[in-house]
Amino acid sequence: MAESAQEAPVVLPSVLSVKELAETLERPVPDVMSALIKNGVMATINQDIDFETASIIASDLGIAVEAAPDEEKQETATTVKPTEGKPRPPIVTVLGHVDHGKTSLLDAIRQTDVVAKESGGITQHIGAYQVEAKPAKGKPQLVTFLDTPGHEAFTAMRAHGTKMTDVAILVVAADDGVKPQTVEAIDHIKEAGVPFLVAVTKMDSEGADVNKVKQELAERKVIAEDWGGDVVFAQTSAKKGEGIPELLELVLLISDLAEPKGDPDGDLSGVVIESRLSRAKGAVATILVQQGTLKVGDYLVLEDVTGRVRLMEDWHGKRVTEATPGTPVQVAGLSGVPSYGSAVIGAKDEKDAKAKSELNRRQQHAKRLNKPKLSVEAIKRAVDAGKVKRLPIVLMADVKGSLDAIENSLSKLSQDEVAISLVHTGVGTVSENDVRTAESAGAMIVSFRARVEPTAAALAKQLGVQVSNYDVIYELLDDVTVALETLLSPEIIVNEVGKGEVLAIFRTTKKNQIIGCKVTSGKFVAGSEYRIGDSKESGTVKKLQKVDETVEEVASGTECGLTIDGPQAEVGQKVTLFRTITKPRKLKPVTGGK
Predict the structure, then answer these.
(1) What CATH class has 86-261?
(2) What is the CATH number of domain 376-487?
(3) Are 198 and 234 a contacting pair, CB within 8 Å?
(4) I need a surface site. Which of 58, 117, 182, 564 has the fewest CB within 10 A?
């Protein structure tokens, strides 16, 4: 009975202090803190750590663990399960370069004037709305559009682990082509793995050139179907209202392949897509329901914010009593203003909501404290642990020519063992969004003559994102080369010092052993490592004695005494002394071009 109980995994909560972890694992606190330090986490005895960190430490200590069932359920309740439940409206995000017609396209889709609305107040802005798409064949279907900056939706999706989008629309102006934010949008879409289509806007403009747009996108590996690729293109004119029905039909076709579903009878989960403080209603948030049904009177947990829905409105400002999967609604009755992208779950009552909110707060606090600051050393530890094989970088430059030159040079640095992963590249200032992108991807930001916005610098400091600025390209390349070389596994050189034979055992303790040996070849040197026989296990020679005198080395043919710390020896066994040299490696020189 005792043996089987001992083999059962130890159940851990999603967050606990270092002291609580040591007590639960029945291990000394110094052992647990030592394991934390080895994994790059500097924690005090009373500091909270999350389950993921605790499970790594337990594994290092040879103990199997599992998450507490209730908390595991709470953790997974925030994640959409697209294969379960009933069909729901697809959720669409529109993104692209500024001034390429995103707002005008959204206006045309919902047939309302956003500009007039914001100045005169036709309907409330809640960050999302629904339209009825009418395909040529089949029944009309609702489509939910996220009326927020597209990059925010994708950044929040990765940062909070929630799926906010089923289909993305990449907007590119026919008279302007691919621009910096277009490239940024492509990076976000590909990183999130979301199916997308391209809406070529402003087809009524002078100088509209669809082929130019397709050519420039093809250079970014976004290839149109009629060019042999797999990306659907739609040509639109918001001013004339042309191409909008065809665009919506394409959205339905692409979303049908993903088969978005939600269970209206399941546990409530959703995501915050907009929040603010209203003078009349207090803290309000727009929630996109993903699972379950949200009703007036429900208790909610929005990560570290709680609430009870006392008022719920749709995007028309009409009061509603419930919202099913795929539906955005604005709710009032919250204890505070939640963050954009916060996961939303239900609670049984006020007490349950506060308990879950406090657990979320502790989890978030533990993750922030346990997350090592991004540095070459931190990445090196990750490489050693087999977690990272590439050096992730967000690269920003002042002009396109510099960006292209640096990208080309960086690509030549990547080799079989280590490589550079350009998470995102762009021209212009380093923004808060760039920092969030780097943070969610575990990347460092490399800026070449690109100004770092003050708010971005402050956020980078808060999140522990490393931002490096350069004015000279070769200095940038030199530093990245050093970073890559730090990731290379060092060359281990073993130099044999001497060999001998064990003649006697004088004393054996738990910590060390004192033995008598005769040096048969080479020499014995204090501080060397040793192996017994053919064993691969090694130890250290702590002390070397000749008669009663402590010495630094003993020549061949001489008898001596050794105090060893490690594998214990027996009379007649062979002893080999050696020294291990760790030699940093350099990247292989770039060949070719000569």
Answers:
(1) alpha beta
(2) 3.40.50.10050
(3) yes
(4) 117
